[in-house]
Amino acid sequence: MNRSASRFLALPLAALMVAACSSAAASPTLAPLITPTPPPATATPVAATPAPSATANPCDKATLKTLAAGKLTIGTDNPAYPPYYAAPSDGKYHAPWKDQGDPYTGQGFESAVAYAVAGKLGFSNADVAWTVVPFDNSFAPGAKTFDFYIAQVSYTAERAQAVDMSDGYYFVNQSVVALKSNPVTSAKTVTDLKKYKFGAQVGTTAYTTIQNTIAPTAKASVYDTNDAAIAALKAKQIDALVVDLPTADFITSVQLDGSTIVGQFAAAQGASAEHFSLVLAKGSSLTTCVNQAIGALKGDGTLDSLTKKWLAFVSVPTFGQ
């Protein structure tokens, strides 16, 4: 190959090399691949927590479930005896009460306590209705015609199986009443009492006291009412009558001339101390509220004040063993 041919062959080769370099220089530079970041997920909105609503007070008058809406029906016995109840000052009794005491007066220890409990539950005196229920029926099993009952019903475990019994509103001692002419009045101890014949109203803790505490040699007589028992004492069919101390005070000072309180039995201590309870139907929704009301009356001094006003007694000796 001559020099001219070599020259011509070199030209295309150089051209190709220049073209290749030019083509490489002209190629665009690629940006690095960047994966786009997705937008943040929208957060699920959290519902605002509502402010807690006020819990209804289960012992508010509007919440209480009573026999009659907006009314409180209270049961007691008839006659309604002092000092637990009092006669109306104007002599006008509410039927069917016609002597001794009228629960509507608000006078007498238990009438006053009943209205005080009603007040703590939000009931005015005008909201209270009274109904007659014999003593024995108050704590018998079954439906009740009252919201609560008040008539010196002492708490016993046996009674509490059939009905609800409230906390105590009065702690009580049993006592012996006799005619002053009867030799039982010389008794100083429980042993001294055993040879005499006693009587008491049926179903009462007074009768239980005769059976369990005195345990007399003669069988005790049982009466449907205290009036019948008092009549038997007056007729000398029994030597002595066992009743709670406030009732004994009324019998000897008002009902039976020539009678006296022979003595009282020592009070039990602690949880076993005898006390009067309000009676409610078994499982009543009112029981807790009634107990709260009694607690409030103890706390503010009302019960103590009513006790001193209506149940103040002269000194009564206590029987020894």
How would you summarize the topology of this molecule?
Layout: H1 3-26, E1 72-76, H2 109-120, E2 128-132, H3 135-138, E3 148-149, E4 163-165, E5 170-171, E6 174-179, H4 190-193, E7 198-201, H5 205-214, E8 221-223, H6 226-234, E9 240-244, H7 245-255, E10 259-264, E11 275-276, E12 279-281, H8 287-299, H9 302-310
Helix pairs in contact: 2-8, 2-9
N-to-C CA distance:
159 Å
What is the SS-derived class?
Answer: alpha/beta
Mean pLDDT: 86
- CATH architectural name of the largest domain: 3-Layer(aba) Sandwich
- Largest sheet strand order: 8-7-9-6-10
Describe the structure.
- The protein is an alpha/beta fold.
- It folds into 2 domains: 136 residues, Periplasmic binding protein-like II (D-Maltodextrin-Binding Protein, domain 2); 93 residues, D-Maltodextrin-Binding Protein, domain 2 (3-Layer(aba) Sandwich).
- Helix content is 30%, strand content 14%.
- It contains 9 helices and 12 strands.
- It has a 5-stranded mixed sheet. A 3-stranded parallel sheet has the order 2-1-3, covered by helices on one side. Strands 4-12 form a two-stranded antiparallel ribbon.
- Strand 1, helix 2 and strand 2 form a beta-alpha-beta unit.
- Helix 2 packs antiparallel against helix 9.
- It is globular.
